[in-house]
Specification:
seven-stranded antiparallel sheet, alpha+beta, binds 6-diazenyl-5-OXO-L-norleucine, 21 helices, 598 residues
Length: 598
């Protein structure tokens, strides 16, 4: 009999419904934005139904890892543009009792037939269509293996219990949200090119699902059931593997049965650093996120940022100059550590940060063309300069982050992705899920920008079995006693690292509540192109002052990232904020009791 959930309390303990019975006031009386509050556990994700699934798992006795795995599978159903089975990601797990923090790497791997120049045309130029939207743009998916590994190693509940809510959502359907409907409408031209994607999201008549219409995904429910019944073999072998390889054969893809069988999840040591007395643990390579966030925090620690005022020109100038230098290093030194000796220790060394800080003129902006990757005096490859003209953030960006926290103090910070919105746009026919286009995160040609305007070098060239460099930055911060105080992360391609860092700084350095920290306008710089990206809300005077200092400030952007953050305050109380920048997202406090019936 299928597992069913019976809710003994109100189903949605959602935004602004808070339990105020606690004696110690935790809310600032002068705050302009308030978080969701919980005394027990919390799940914060970009899609409210999936957050509720995770919170119910907590209420049923699951821990933060069970909730994270359940939320991950649910998002694969309810947020198909970013939640996924056909992509990959990274999870930072903190287990309270063992006082252990682990980084789980379930990034996609290049298929064994992948080649360094597979995306170059006859003239030797990058064929962006092939690198981003063909079936060859798909790496071997890691999500299912990653979620299962996390569950098996650190979860409490049976696998079936945490997958069942996703199966139910796919089998019975759920009401299409406004943002899902809008995205299907906007991307119809691209997504309808693939017959299976068209069938799954547009139906026979080609009409996209309107808000409120019930989206049933029967093939996806079957795939999820196979995973529930057979574990890893329900995806990487048997019928699902057959369907994936049949799709490869039909469309000229590279992923073989052996590639699926050989997919490996890697548990890595997180990259940890300190900012004053806060410890920050985050994702190591093959993500660049952790290394460069720690590097930037090291540079910024040398100044009294608080006294400058949040988002003042003096503060933004220091942010930009730190970002510029970190992203210059990213272009040369970062790649998959199993293939390239990434100098993590040197890049995150406080002495190196002090050298970089000393090179920053406090009154004048530097030019990116003059900043080279900094560990040695060897010039950056000249090709990298060429990229400055071309780099631009042209693609819609969709990855998704979620955070979970349980009553025992276990914490999960997870970011996973298909890369672009709906990945390659190609679905595995019969299996009901979309394939990633993560191969574009490799450097197809040194110096040529990828979909996020990021340039890279041989450290990130394509090789069979290699993982493309990422910017995903799932993060957990700890106080001086080693207790977790914050879990956060963001989508946003190249902007993920700088957005995540600004949440941390807003909370730690500027003492903002987590809701205010989320709402505050953000900026971004990535070395190339040499421009300051900024959200509305940064004052015109400040932007003018930055221009006077020599910054190129002409890239107003509608939004930067979408953070999903949980903060622990006063030891036990949890404050959660789901970014206002995404419609339909939600922080959900653990309901009082949920029974699981077999
Ligand atoms: O791994 C990376 O850095 C990119 N593939 C992430 C893409 C992304 O964040 C898109 N969305 N917002």
């Amino acid at each position: 009999m299928p597992i069913r959930f019976i809710f003994t309390t109100a189903m949605l303990t959602c935004m602004f419904l808070v339990n105020l019975s606690h004696a110690t006031p935790v809310l600032e009386s002068n705050a302009r934005f308030y978080p969701v509050i919980s005394e027990t556990g919390m799940v914060v994700s970009q899609e409210m139904i999936a957050s509720q699934v995770g919170a119910d798992i907590l209420a049923a006795g699951g821990n933060a890892v069970d909730a994270a795995v359940a939320t991950g599978f649910a998002l694969a159903v309810t947020l198909p543009r970013a939640g996924n089975l056909g992509g990959g990601g990274f999870m930072i797990v903190h287990m309270a009792e063992q006082n252990k923090t682990i980084a789980i790497d379930y990034r996609e791997m290049a298929p064994s037939d992948a080649q360094k120049d597979m995306f170059l045309d006859k003239e030797g130029d990058v064929d962006n269509q092939k690198a981003r939207f063909s079936i060859q743009s798909s790496g071997v998916p890691g999500t299912v293996a990653g979620l299962l590994k996390a569950q098996e190693s650190y979860g409490l509940l049976p696998l079936k219990a945490v997958i069942q809510p996703a199966i139910n959502l796919a089998r019975d359907g759920f009401a299409t949200s406004v943002s899902l409907s809008d995205s299907l409408e906007t991307l119809a031209k691209r997504l309808q090119k693939d017959p299976a994607t068209k069938k799954y999201f547009y139906g026979d008549d080609g009409a996209f699902y309107k808000a409120g219409e019930i989206l049933v995904q029967a093939d996806l429910a079957d795939t999820l059931s196979r995973i529930s019944n057979k574990g890893r073999d329900g995806f990487y072998a048997g019928k699902t593997a057959e369907l994936i390889t049949a799709q490869m054969e039909r469309s000229g893809g590279l992923i073989s049965k052996a590639d699926l069988r050989n997919y490996k999840v890697v548990e890595r040591e997180p990259v940890c650093g300190t900012f004053r007395d806060t410890k920050v643990c985050t994702m190591p390579p093959p993500s660049s996120g952790g290394v460069h966030m720690v590097q930037m925090l090291n540079i910024l620690e040398g100044w009294d940022l608080q006294s400058m005022g949040h988002n003042s020109a003096a503060y933004i100038h220091r942010l930009v100059e730190s970002m510029r230098r970190a992203y210059a290093d990213r272009s040369l030194y970062l790649g998959d550590p199993d293939f390239f000796p990434v100098p993590v220790g040197q890049l995150t060394d406080k002495k190196y940060a002090a050298v970089l800080r000393s090179q920053i003129d406090l009154e004048r902006s530097s030019r990116s063309a003059d900043i080279k990757p900094g560990l040695s005096d060897k010039s950056a490859p000249r090709l990298i300069q060429k990229a400055a003209q071309k780099a631009a953030q042209t693609e819609s960006t969709e990855t998704t982050h979620y955070s979970t926290w349980d009553q025992w103090g276990n914490v999960v910070s997870n970011t996973y992705t298909l890369n672009f919105s709906y990945g390659s746009g190609i679905s595995v026919a019969g299996a009901g899920f979309l394939l990633n286009n993560e191969m574009d995160d490799f450097s197809s040609k040194p110096g040529e920008p990828n979909g996020y305007g990021l340039v890279g070098g041989i450290a990130n060239s394509i090789e069979p079995g290699k993982r493309p460099l990422s910017s995903m930055t799932p993060t957990i911060a700890f106080n001086s006693e080693g207790k977790p105080i914050l879990a956060t992360g963001s989508p946003g391609g190249s902007t993920i690292i700088t957005v995540t860092m600004q949440i941390l700084l807003n909370v730690i350095e500027f003492n903002m509540g987590v809701a205010e920290a989320t709402a505050a306008p953000r900026i971004h710089h990535q070395w190339l192109p040499d421009t300051v990206f900024y959200e509305s809300g940064v004052s015109v005077d400040t932007l003018d002052r930055l221009r006077e200092m020599g910054h190129i400030v002409n890239s107003k952007t509608s939004r930067l990232g979408a953070t999903e953050t949980i903060q622990s305050k006063n030891g036990s109380r949890l404050l959660g904020t789901s970014d206002y920048r995404r419609h339909g997202s939600g922080a959900v406090s653990q309901p009082e009791a949920v029974e699981i019936l077999d």
